[in-house]
Structures are given as structure tokens and as C-alpha cells.
Design a protein that fits this description.
alpha/beta, Rossmann fold, six-stranded parallel sheet, about 15% strand, globular
Length: about 350
């Protein structure tokens, strides 16, 4: 029915990972159709090489011309806008794509099949929201496991980089690894750093595990106290996204907040402990093997503009004791799993 289908999600890295089950389901429903994904350049590594995506187009509004994208997608039959970006719909409109579907969100003029967010949006897992948007706007009903996420495998170059990096830091392959992403893209989502320090000290006292910190280079200096703990390696800014995926794949446990690395862990089936407060766990938390810790207050999740609050009460209410208990449970599951392999 459709020769060329364009799916756009020019949001964050985690959002793009959450799009992967829908992309897979579309390819299974329309195996002879070309599936093209429109994203921002920084998201390319988390989807490049996935066999259910035929083409990836990147667009950076600060650098790229709208008309270049318009020309490229001119002969597409269907455009599905899963993001909230105004230009996404405009580009599909000027490209003359006959069916322009997805979330209306202030761009209804450019959509032919626009729908609003459902009343259960915040209580529904995001990947399922995407599938519902496609069904409600186009009538295309997808089937599949929308809680199963996908990320590509690291290639030989990236695998060797991690091997060499681990060797240079004294991280032993034979010794169990815990990976922690202490920071998210939004301050109110961060579990307190002083809690991480206390948790890491307790984990190192009780378990013969090595601990690796991952994240952005801009946050490197904030981890000075964590880095000073014996057995902890600060790798913030030291890995690409694909290399981070490889690190998490090798880990027995991942710990972090609502972030792209957490969704990587979910895709890799790496056991996790996640912290939620400012954002809805029903909406964003992985459904794979892990424990989500959350303290729901009257103001949770944060309403209105994403400004959060200075107190971050919802995150401070998740205690170190809570986190330690969850980690011990997940490490026990990981140990049993490894013993059976």
C-alpha cells in the first residue's frame, strides 16, 4: 500500500530508542515498504544498523536547510510525525506527502490526519503511545511487543576501544561490572549525587564489583567525589553512544534516572535500578527486568513547563536504603542468571 514511509522523531536519544519497537512493527506490517527515520544527528548511533530501518535522515535546524530535506522526501506516500516539532510537519507539507499523520500539537494546519494526545498519555508507556498515535491517525494497527526496545551492536572498532579502555583503567573482564549514569538531561530527574556517593560506598563494601560512571563530558568534574572512591572509574565523556551501549551490555547492573542510558539497558536486557519522580514511571520507565523506585507526591510528575522545583523532594525521598535493597535484589538475579549460562 505504501512504497515509502517517513517516521520522524526529532526528540532526545531516549525518545528515539523508544521509537524502535514501532519501527520494527511497521517493517513487519509493510515488509516491501521503505522505512525512513528522520532524527537529529546526535541520535544516529543508537539506530544505525538496525535492519528494520532502511534509511536514516538527519536534520539539525541550526545547520541544515529545510529545503534539502523537503527535496529528499518529496515522493513519500506517508509521513508520521511522532515528535512535537513544528518543522517536521512543515517539511512533510512542502514535500507534498499526501498523508501527514501524527500528533497535531500546534501544527494542525500542515497535517491531514492529526490527533491529540490521549487522556491516558502520561499513564501509558511511551512506545505504546507511539503505536496508538499511528493507529488513531492512520488506522494502521501495529502488532508486536512495544515494551521491547532495540539498539545496534557495537562493531569491532568500538569493542576494541572498550577492551583497551578497560585495560588502561584496570577494569578486569573477569570481574563483575556495575554501570551508573548519575545525570540525566533535566536536573529535576537526577537522584541526589550525595546519595550516589553513599550507595557506591556500600556496594563496594558488600560486593566484589567494579563500578563505571558514564555520561556526558560536561558532567565529568561533578563526579570528583565519586571518582575518588576506590573501585570507581569515571568514564563520563570517554565513550561514544555505541561504546556506551557496549559497556552497558557487559554490565551486571545499571543504575540511573530517566535517561537514554537507562533505555539502552532495557534494550540490552541488562538488569537495572531506576529513579523516577519528576517524570512518570508509567509513561517512561522500562518494562524489562529491573526495579523502578519512585515517590509519588501531589505534584508528581512535574506539571506545566519543565522547570521542576528546587527542593526535588520526590527524588530525595528515595533513600539510599531503598536503592541498596533494590540493587542487592537485582545483583542476586544477575548472579543466578550468569550461573545458569
Amino acid at each position: 500500500m505504501y512504497k515509502k514511509i517517513l517516521i520522524s522523531n526529532r526528540a532526545g536519544i531516549g525518545d528515539v530508542i523508544l521509537t524502535t519497537p514501532v519501527l520494527r512493527a511497521l517493517k513487519e506490517k509493510f515488509p516491501n515498504s521503505k522505512i525512513t527515520l528522520l532524527i537529529t544527528p546526535n541520535c544516529t548511533q543508537v539506530v544505525k544498523g538496525l535492519d528494520f530501518i532502511d534509511e536514516i535522515i538527519t536534520y539539525d535546524k541550526k545547520k541544515d536547510s529545510v529545503w534539502t530535506i523537503v527535496k529528499h522526501i518529496r515522493k513519500y506516500d506517508l509521513a508520521i510525525c511522532l515528535d512535537f516539532k513544528y518543522r517536521t510537519a512543515v517539511m512533510a507539507f512542502f514535500a507534498g506527502i499526501p498523508i501527514r499523520a501524527g500528533l497535531t500539537y500546534k501544527r494542525g494546519l500542515f497535517m491531514t490526519h492529526g490527533v491529540e494526545k490521549s487522556s491516558q498519555w502520561e499513564n501509558t508507556y511511551e512506545a505504546c503511545n507511539y503505536a496508538n498515535v499511528i493507529k488513531d491517525s492512520t488506522g494502521i494497527e501495529l502488532t508486536g511487543h512495544f515494551t521491547k526496545l532495540y539498539v545496534p551492536k557495537a562493531d569491532r572498532t568500538d569493542t576494541k576501544y572498550i577492551d583497551d579502555f578497560f585495560a588502561s583503567c584496570g577494569i578486569e573482564k573477569e570481574k563483575a561490572l556495575i554501570t551508573i549514569a548519575p545525570f540525566t538531561s533535566w536536573l529535576p530527574k537526577n537522584w541526589p549525587l550525595e546519595y550516589y556517593v553513599e550507595l557506591v560506598k556500600l556496594l563496594i563494601e558488600r560486593y566484589p564489583h567494579q563500578i563505571l560512571l558514564v555520561g556526558m563530558a560536561s558532567e565529568f568534574e561533578k563526579c570528583a567525589e565519586l571518582q575518588s572512591i576506590s573501585g570507581v572509574t569515571n568514564a563520563l565523556g570517554k565513550t561514544s553512544l555505541l561504546q556506551m551501549i557496549e559497556v552497558i551490555r557487559r554490565s551486571q547492573l545499571f543504575i540511573g534516572g530517566c535517561s537514554a542510558p537507562l533505555h539502552m539497558a532495557a534494550a540490552l536486557q541488562t538488569p537495572f535500578v531506576a529513579f523516577y519522580g519528576a517524570t512518570s514511571p508509567e509513561h517512561w520507565a522500562p518494562r524489562t527486568q529491573g526495579i523502578t523506585l519512585s515517590r509519588r507526591l501531589e505534584c508528581s510528575p512535574c506539571n506545566g513547563p519543565m522547570i521542576g522545583c528546587a527542593e526535588k523532594t520526590c527524588m530525595y525521598d528515595i533513600t539510599v536504603a531503598d536503592a541498596l535493597e533494590a540493587c542487592e535484589k537485582m545483583l542476586g538475579i544477575a548472579t543466578k542468571k550468569n550461573a545458569m549460562m
